[in-house]
Write a structure and sequence with these properties.
Blueprint lengths: L1 H6 L5 H10 L2 H6 L2 H17 L8 H7 L14 H8 L9 H16 L2 E2 L10 H7 L1 E2 L1 H14 L4 E6 L9 E7 L3 E4 L15 H4 L12 E4 L19 E4 L12 E9 L9 E6 L3 E6 L11 E6 L3 E5 L4 E5 L4 E6 L3
Parallel strand pairs: 1-2, 8-14
Antiparallel strand pairs: 3-4, 3-6, 4-5, 6-7, 8-11, 9-10, 9-12, 12-13
Helix pairs in contact: 6-9, 7-9
């Protein structure tokens, strides 16, 4: 570590000093000076190369571009490789926002990784996910964050230990372009950020709550720890509470109804779903497949106290809207 401080170029010294001061304690004992020098040098070079680099404040650069990891994932030397992998596909981007959207659209096919609950473990590092070809929302987020950082786009890991309705945890990514923007890793919405399937769930998060809040990981000292669902006893990684950015006004007269179409083995299938109801209500949509997050369902906000019919070609359910629920429809094999 002392060797890295002595050998770092003067122009990179502030970044190296920040990195060493704020990196997790275990990294101080395990990472080499060569690793730190290479990581720092590449981060500074990409900052100069891309047009958006000049607009990134030092504080954001230090905190969300320089770090070589987000949380407890295995430490890997990804920065140079990822720069060469992804700089070509983002060369047309005019902003960090646009570059992040391009990466989310293209990179997962490039590296052969997709969402699956059958991934080896939750907190996979990038090359662990690439070797498996599968990753959870956590592993996918880590992969997208590191890809963003490799081309100078500030990015951070965000998640909630539990949705308000106890449906499970979730992780996603925020990128900085004159403010923070959010996106689901491997869940692109054309060229847009801030457009995600979980906005309704996130809107009911509870600020300051260790279980139902939304937190962003940081290496800066914050007074909060990031609640890692996969290692709940570990409190070594810092966080900031970003719940307020996601909370929205809730219309209590509307109830979220989530629809799944399941085959005989219980797997989700994408089929056409038609919903009809009072006052000539009619809706047609497509149910989600196993490629989607476990909590990503075809969702409608329906008025409390009304009756509706939900049907596919194979099944039909009639429901009276009282409280939020998941409606399962059977699909014939």
């Amino acid at each position: 570590i002392q060797s890295a401080i002595r050998r770092v170029p003067k122009a990179q010294r502030a970044g190296m000093e920040w990195l060493i001061k704020h990196m997790p304690h275990e990294d101080l004992k395990t990472v080499s000076s060569r690793f730190l020098l290479d990581n720092c040098d590449l981060a500074y070079k990409t900052r100069k190369k891309y047009t958006w680099g000049a607009s990134v404040p030092d504080s954001i650069f230090f905190e969300y571009v320089l770090p070589f990891a987000s949380l407890n994932e295995r430490r890997e030397n990804w920065r140079k490789d990822f720069y060469y992998r992804f700089s070509s596909v983002t060369k047309s981007a005019a902003s960090a926002y646009e570059a992040a959207a391009i990466l989310n659209n293209k990179m997962f096919e490039m590296v052969g990784v997709k969402y699956s609950t059958k991934r080896p473990k939750a907190d996979q590092a990038p090359y662990e996910s690439m070797e498996a070809g599968l990753a959870s929302c956590t592993g996918l987020s880590i992969l997208l964050i590191d890809a963003c950082r490799s081309i100078g786009v500030p990015a951070r890991f965000v998640g909630t230990p539990m949705w308000y309705n106890n449906a499970g945890n979730h992780s996603w990514v925020e990128v900085w372009d004159d403010g923070w923007h959010y996106t689901g890793a491997a869940e692109p919405t054309a060229d847009e950020l801030n457009n995600v399937w979980f906005s309704g769930l996130a809107s009911r998060a509870v600020e300051g709550h260790p279980k139902y809040g939304i937190y962003a990981a940081t290496w800066a000292k914050s007074g909060l720890h990031f609640p890692m669902d996969w290692m709940p006893e570990v409190r070594d990684y810092n966080a900031v509470d970003v719940t307020q950015s996601y909370i929205q006004n809730i219309d209590d007269s509307l109830v979220p109804i989530r629809i799944r179409a399941l085959d005989s083995s219980g797997k989700r299938k994408p089929v056409t779903v038609v919903v009809t109801g009072e006052d000539d209500f009619s809706f047609e949509g497509t149910s989600k497949s196993e490629a989607c997050d476990l909590n990503d369902h075809l969702t409608l906000m329906l008025p409390r106290g009304k009756d509706f019919t939900i049907k596919t070609d194979d099944d039909q359910r009639k429901i009276s809207i009282e409280k939020e629920e998941i409606v399962d429809l059977k699909i014939l094999d």
